[in-house]
Amino acid sequence: MSRKSVMPGFGPTIGFTLLYLGLVVLIPLSTLVFESFKLSWDDYVHIITSKRVLSSFRVSFIAALIAASVASIFGFITAWVLVRYSFFGKNIFHALIDLPFALPTAVAGIVLATIFQPSGFLGKLLSDLFGLQVAFKPIGIVIALIFISIPFVVRTVEPVLLEFETSMEEAGSSLGATRLQIFTKIIFPNIFPALLTGFALAFARGVGEYGSVIFIAGNIPYVSEIVPLLIVIKLEQYDIEGATAIALTMLVISFFLLFLINLLQLWVRKRSGQL
Amino acid sequence: MSILLSDISKNFGNFAALNHINLEVPEGELVALLGPSGCGKTTLLRIIAGLEHTDKGRVIINGQDKTDQTVSQRGIGFVFQHYALFRHMTVFENVAFGLRVKPRRDRPSNDFITKKVHSLLDLVQLDWLHNRYPDQLSGGQRQRIALARALAVEPSVLLLDEPFGALDASVRKDLRQWLRNLHHELHVTSIFVTHDQEEAMEVASQVVVLNHGQIEQQGSPTDIYDHPANAFVSKFIGQTNIFDLDEHDNDWLQTAGLLQPSQQGKIAHVRPHDIIIEKTDNHHTAPATLKDWQHLGALIRIELVKNESNGSDAPVFAEMPNEQFKQLELAKGDKVKLKVRQAHWFH
């Protein structure tokens, strides 16, 4: 560095960061890339464009997208309630929010499958009332993903809401704005970057989620089979090349999408004067 | 527009923040709500604005009872101590906000908004910053933008909560002057809250002194300084020497030229500039010793020690112009005689 930074310790900390990234992220992932070089380009394209693989990609990404969107709305409302109001049992509520973080995802999957299956408590209710079957359908995947991704949204939005100056709202109302205008024009734009981060985390988690999904999804090829499951299936059939090709593609798409969300975030922050 | 507060009371739990406040602010005045922290001045301002509900009493602005209206219906302008600018909007959009959120039938055209915002930014002399975000401005600039934003909706009254409280001393001095000039130009009825008596005296045309949720005195700055209604006001406004006098002090009272009017009380408050010093050689009747002095520009502040009849010492402060002090040719430790020009008596 040509310019001396005021904050000491740049050398050791960046060194540690690079070491960590190398050991934990880059080396394992590059193995994946090297492994896939064993395949010829034609073989690779052949595996990736097979109908079953394409369907699983569609299922995985669409389900994660829907789940992250729904989780963003629910999570925002939950964070709002936790920050803005005080009520009896708030601390228990706080602990409940984090439960999906700690619970083995397979447990969540089994529980969800049990209550949403046609003879289960909620499953019966839904099919009686709306004729809707949730378990063993793509919508079951969405529900499992919402369950595991809400805490990501709550925990990213909450601190930003907590820091939000209520005097900005008071200023808005003194200028004649309605409650709705204050929310849409003042509160939401200030929270939006954090909500976007929460969305990205929820989405990333959703795309990679395996344990909670496989029990409720039914795993019907072409319909409700997710990419991580397909990778496991290929591995069980000793089709290492096939598994590697799918995994690599998944990696590239995920990285690209997260990168895109980061750019969007940068743009939002710049536009709102936070950078 | 005039503001009338009748019998306002407000409690926070067991704490009575405001106690039967009656106050009338005539149209076009610039009023300071002055008091120590915790006296209820900010609560009173927020009640006038509608940001806080009153437990009892009515808020009447320009003859209309506004007690049950929300802040957004009252048509007031509010300026916050920490500016409360919308940080995700440019300076221009901040000022335009009040016009843009009007219901569609009242909302002015875009051209009108642009013109109005630029004229307001000209008024606060910051039009060149219209593209910036609040985080890129200094404190003084932010507060001027906040004022322009409040003025955009043409409020019937302007309320300012410690508007200079977060600024450093030199900026604060400039802005005080500037606010007074702006008020002369616009004549919008304004109330500002401050704990700084100098600021209140310098800026306001009327000062309301509050303590413990009650109004101690209301009047022009001159009134309040020259005729304090009680001991609290006298102590809070300007500097004062407090003499708790009894019959042992009769000698001193005579040499000082103070006649104790017994029915007015036995505590005398004397402003430093109302104390006259005379050099004396008679050590026995000399009631004070010169301890030290400081230059305050045109004035000299003199620290004296008054020799009490019971043997203890009490500090006394006097002030006089530089020239006069030089002529006295005093040195530290000199004995002096004190004369009192005038005093305020309290019980």
Walkthrough of the structure:
- The complex is a heterodimer of chains A (275) and B (347).
- Chain A is mostly helical and 275 residues long.
- Chain A has 12 helices and no strands.
- With 347 residues, chain B is of the alpha+beta class.
- Chain B has 11 helices and 18 strands.
- In chain B, the strands form 4 sheets. Chain B has a 6-stranded mixed sheet with strand order 6-7-8-3-9-10, with helices on both faces. Chain B has a 5-stranded antiparallel sheet with strand order 13-17-14-15-16.
- The longest helix of chain B has 18 residues, at 169-186.
- Chain B is elongated and about 85 Å long.
- The two termini of chain B are 39 Å apart.
- Chains A and B meet through α8 and α9 of A and β6 and α5 of B.
Keywords:
heterodimer; A: about 280 residues; mainly alpha; about 0% strand; B: about 350 residues; alpha+beta; six-stranded mixed sheet; five-stranded antiparallel sheet; 18 strands
Detail the poorly predicted runs of chain A: none
Tally of helical runs of chain B: 11
Task: Please report which band the strand proportion of chain B falls in: under 5%, 5-15%, 15-25%, 25-35%, 35-45% or over 45%.
Answer: 25-35%
How does the helix and strand content of chain B classify structurally?
alpha+beta
What is the succession of H and E elements of chain B? Answer: EEEHEEHEHHHEHEHEEHHEHEEEEEHEE
Please work out how many helical segments of chain A DSSP would assign. 12
Count of DSSP strands of chain B: 18
Roughly what fraction of the amino acids of chain A lie in strands?
under 5%
Give the number of DSSP strands of chain A: 0
Mean pLDDT of chain A: 88
Distance between the termini of chain A: 23 Å
Mean pLDDT of chain B: 87
- How helix-rich are the residues of chain A, as a percent range? over 70%
**Rg of chain B, nearest Å:** 25 Å
